[in-house]
Design a protein that fits this description.
single chain; mainly alpha
């Protein structure tokens, strides 16, 4: 069962998706959520605060999908495959949320949530490192910084996802999945890396 706060966040997402942040109004969000003026301002001081809260909740959902896609049982190639698949699946499954996260969010209202965003980003990095560090130590993944590693995994996929989210390209970005996985494996996996099961990844 959703709460009044949940209803306002869902309404905010729908209105931001349709009208953009600048075009959205508190009145339209309240109308869509069937919430009173008092109810809105009980939960959020402004449209900007609602947008920031929405951003953090969506970011948490995205990060959870990425982190839970890999575990210590994944070899290098399997882990890379799972990370890219998780990213593409989340973007397509939660297209409206992904549009807000990657296309609509703006730095001018994001400053107020920057600290929590950094904390969430750190938790994402820690989650991926729990899987990556042992593989680095065994030489199964090529040595590079965590930031460079993540950019090699997600960066190329994001090019297709942004075109999809903006409407510039209507094709499902998952159609490029196998090629993106192959390219990422060449970029970050050491030649000859073994699966956990002992076979070639």
């Amino acid at each position: 069962m959703t709460t009044a706060r949940d209803d306002l966040l869902a309404a905010g997402l729908a209105v931001f998706d349709r009208d953009g942040f600048e075009g959205a109004t508190v009145a339209e969000i309240r109308s869509r959520a069937r919430a009173s003026n008092g109810s809105f301002f009980h939960f959020f001081a402004s449209k900007k605060e609602l947008a920031g809260t929405l951003f953090l909740e969506i970011l948490q959902s995205y990060h959870a999908a990425i982190i839970t896609s890999v575990d210590e049982g994944c070899g290098a190639r399997e882990g890379v495959t799972r990370l890219i698949r998780a990213h593409l699946d989340w973007v397509v499954t939660f297209r409206r949320e992904a549009r807000f996260l990657f296309e609509i969010s703006r730095s001018e209202w994001g400053e107020e949530v920057r600290g929590e965003q950094r904390a969430q980003n750190s938790r994402l990095a820690e989650g991926i490192e729990r899987w990556r560090a042992p593989l680095l130590a065994r030489g199964e993944l090529l040595p590079m910084s965590a930031v460079l590693f993540f950019s090699q995994i997600i960066g190329p996929a994001q090019i297709f996802c942004r075109a999809y989210l903006s409407g510039r390209d209507r094709s499902d970005p998952r159609e490029q999945m196998e090629t993106l996985i192959a390219c990422a494996i060449r970029a970050v996996v050491a030649p000859g890396a073994q699966d956990q099961a002992g076979g070639t990844s």
